[in-house]
Every structure is written in C-alpha cells, then in structure tokens.
Amino acid sequence: MPRQPDRLRAAVVGTGAIVAGSHLPALTAHADRVELVAAVDVDPGRLDAFRAEAATAGFDVQGYADLAAMLDGARPDLVLIGTPPSLHREQTVASLKAGAWVLCEKPLCLTLAEYDEIAAAEQASGAYASVVFQHRYGSGATHAQELIAGGELGAPLVAHCQTTWHRDAAYYAVPWRGRWSTEGGGPTMGHGIHQYDLLLHLLGEWTEVRAMASRLVHDTESEDVSTALVRFANGALATVVNSVLSPDEVSRIRIDCADATVELTHLYGHSNADWTYTPAPGVAPERAAAWRSPAGDVPSSHTAQLGALLDAKDAGVRPPGSGPDARSTLEFAAALYKAAFTGRPVHAGEIAPGDPYYTAMHGNHPDWSPQR
C-alpha cells in the first residue's frame, strides 16, 4: 500500500494474540487514516511472524526489541499496547511523554495510584491514553445508551450485569495470571470489567458498592468469583457477577426501566441482533417500534473503538474511554475489592491517597495480600 502523508503513524507494543487478532485487523480496516510503521516485542520469533503478517495487510513494519528505541526511532503518533497488565502503566507513560496518543488493552493500569500517574503524564504531554473497552462501541451499545440517557425508556430502575465464564487450571498456569502484581486481580479486573464498564456507560455515575469475593476453585492470589450490589446516582440498583467458574458461559446486561426492559446477551462481542427491547404493559406500539436497533449494524470491536479514537484525534479532543470516564471504571473495581474484603459499603470518591486500596487492589488485607 503506498504511503499517504496525511495518515497517522502507529506502533504496536506486544505482538501476541490480542494484537495480531484484534489490533492488526482494526488498523487494516482504518488503513486510509493510520499506517502501522513499528512493532515492539522481546521475542524475536514472534516479532518476525507479526511483521510478516502485517506485510500481507500492506504495512511495512520496522521491528524493535525496546520501547524507548522505538519511540525515538519511529516517532509514532499513536501507540497500541497489548502486553501483560503489569507493563501497561510504564509503557503508557513512556509513550505519552514521547507525545504519542495511546490505546491500551484493559486494564490500563493496576491501581488508582497508577491511573493518576498516567493522568499527570497526559497533562504534561497534551496527549491522551484510552483503555480498550470495545463493548461500549458498536451500533447496539450506542443506540441503547442514547435511549437510556434521553429518557426514552423511562427511568432506569433495576439492572443485572453478568460475566459468567470458565477458565481451567491450565489457564492459570501462565505465570502472570491470578497474581496481584502482574494481573491486578481476578475476574473482577481481567474478565468482568468489560461488562460492568458497559453497564456504567449505560447507567452513568455509580455512588455505592457492597460486595463479596472468594477463591472457590483456583489456587490464585486473587479471587475467582465476585459479586456486587451497586447504587447509581439516578437511583437505579444493580447486581454485578464476575466469575471464571461457570461451565455455561455467557455475558449479559439487563436494565429494567420504567417503560421497557433492554437486554444484551452475548459472549465476547455483540451486534444489533444481541440486543432486545421489551415494552412495559400499556406502552404504545408505535413508541416501542422506535426502540428497534438501527439499520446499520456495527459490531462491538477494536475496529469500532479505533475509529472513535481517530475521530477524536482529527478533532483534537479527548478520546472516549480515557480520563475521568475510564477512571470511574477502575475506581469501581477498587471499590468492589474494598467492599468485599472489608465487609462494608464503599462510596464513590472514597478511595484516595492514603487509603490502602488506592495503591493496591488487595488493600494489604491479611487474607488477600500476596504476603498472606
């Protein structure tokens, strides 16, 4: 593909399955707007394989073993990060300091303290860091959020958010999984975060969390199941379940509003057909007909989120999935852990510098810290 001078220069950090399987197709889909010019990986064989795959998509990718060398040599406008979670904060801050925007796999970092370090790097550099929460994107989610925010379904009242997946012992044999210092937590941080991020996106500001967590099957530092009760600023109440113990895997969000129930059922990604709207008794058929999903079907994906980020870059505005909005999701995770481990409710804004859950999701709790 001939190089177009007005395209943004992009680089990827990490060339494993998530980058090759999701970020590369997203970059290819937006090849008229962004050019992949560099890749970083400590594994030469994996890096070479990725460069060959990228070449088939029309990208001439320079390989690097070191992030700093890549930032200095390639001077990217955008860095996409797909490395293990413990590396995210350092790599994001380095990229921001080099003036590049960042799109990083979840979690963007492991603690609220690390998030605030990233926010400081944003402010100093003028660049922005977004976290991959691809379930917010796509036509079905956009349509639902607009209907709820606009009051078209009536006031939100009751919600359920379910991430019930299954992971076996072989999954946790990977050294960095299930450890606080490398993954940040269990399914609360690594699995269910996508669904409850979408729930927060749909319902808005949360105010209070009560929770429980346990290790029921896996011999990990962190939990393998958590549950929460959540109160939202609009008065709605919700349940959240995050599990890796569930043979019948499903991802589900249900929101009962005064005039309709909206429900999303899928596994790892959704399209318009995965959303349903059930009107309350007495709702006029013509009103309910207006709730139908839009004709254009854009599946939730890295491709959809990258498009939104590129739109923000073109407009020179903060991209979605960044800043205080994305921080709220990480704060929710910290609040869930604190509520579960202390046995008391946690309120939004409560976890601040000086709180043990600000610098560690386990809060140095004697039953949950790595030194237990």
TrEMBL record:
Residues of the GFO/IDH/MocA-like oxidoreductase domain: 143-262
The Gfo/Idh/MocA-like oxidoreductase N-terminal domain, residue ranges: 8-131
Annotated InterPro entries: Gfo/Idh/MocA-like_OxRdtase_N, Gfo/Idh/MocA_Oxidoreductase, GFO_IDH_MocA-like_dom, NAD(P)-bd_dom_sf
GO molecular function: nucleotide binding
Descriptive protein name: Gfo/Idh/MocA family oxidoreductase
Species annotation: Streptomyces paludis
